[in-house]
Amino acid sequence: MFRKLMLLTTALVTLGTSMAAAETKVLKYTHYQPGRPDQPKHAAALAFEKCVEDTTDGSIDVQIFPAGQLGNATTALEGLRLGTLEMAVVHDGGISSVYRPFDVFALPYIFPDHETAYKVLDGAFGKEFADAMREETGIRLLAYADNGIRHFTNSKHPIKTPGDMKGLKMRVQPAPVFISLVESLGASASAIDWAELPAALAQGTVDGQENGVTNIMAASLYQSQKYATLDGHVYSLHAYLIGDTFYEGLTDVEKKAIDSCVVQARDIHRDMTRAQDLSAQKVLTEAGMEVYVPTAEEIAAFRDIAQPAVQKQLEGSIGAEWVSKLLKAAAGAQANSQ
């Protein structure tokens, strides 16, 4: 009798353990910055992990894979669509490879400051854009965060006017819109993946690149780039993405946890990146770079050349609708802040 009771007890414990394991949903989460808490993406990921697991009492197990451990952005986005990956924080250029309208955010010199960008992204335009992306790709865009305001750097000479770009070989993201941006200013553009960029700069394959200070510091690009021009040509984005099939398979409580915790992660990500953006001159100077801050008139000279060229390219590649809507939303946000 005792033996039967022991066997029954063991079976019940095993069954209970198996049921608990079956109920736990694994959320694999990848991003592309080093796995250190001083990196905005990773600090945000750690906060998201704790928030989700605490809020759901462990029914979702968040597993973080930093520094592109699960493959490049294209691989991650395909994983979200196929259901082999649950969540990723991906930069704008990578997203454009599966949803071309994301290129619209590369329209240069459209956001004068962070506050204007947040109003547009967190408002009606941002929601409409996310809904359209989900419908076409099966990837749900949960939140927009900063990838840093993009600036030009190079190893040859200071860039103060569009004419200073002529003759430079510049690395850009693998997205046609960034090629149009650089070439409109007279430089030649080379599309090089992020992981290959430090080597390309060190070896002189390209003379320069364009990125935010967070990425310049994270990849130690200052080691091969002497000159930086803080023109702020593009407000670059990271997007918090989740496979829609996975999301729809969650309980209402779990969905609410994801939705609320991603806002917490987004705000940490934004705050850390914005702080570096606002201290770009100091940070890059201390890293040994020669930093130039253009005047409003000099930035206008860049805008007058680059914006019409990129707008024309965008209207040809993604159509005029999203371009028009973004310009209208940005103008409205600026008017409301004045």
Automatic annotation (TrEMBL):
The keyword Calcium does not apply. Its main location: other. InterPro entries: DctP_fam, TRAP_DctP, TRAP_DctP_sf. Residues 1-22 form the signal peptide. GO terms for biological process: transmembrane transport. Pfam families: DctP. GO terms for cellular component: outer membrane-bounded periplasmic space. Keywords: Signal, Transport. It is found in: Cell envelope. Belongs to the bacterial solute-binding protein 7 family. This is C4-dicarboxylate ABC transporter substrate-binding protein. It comes from Paramesorhizobium deserti.
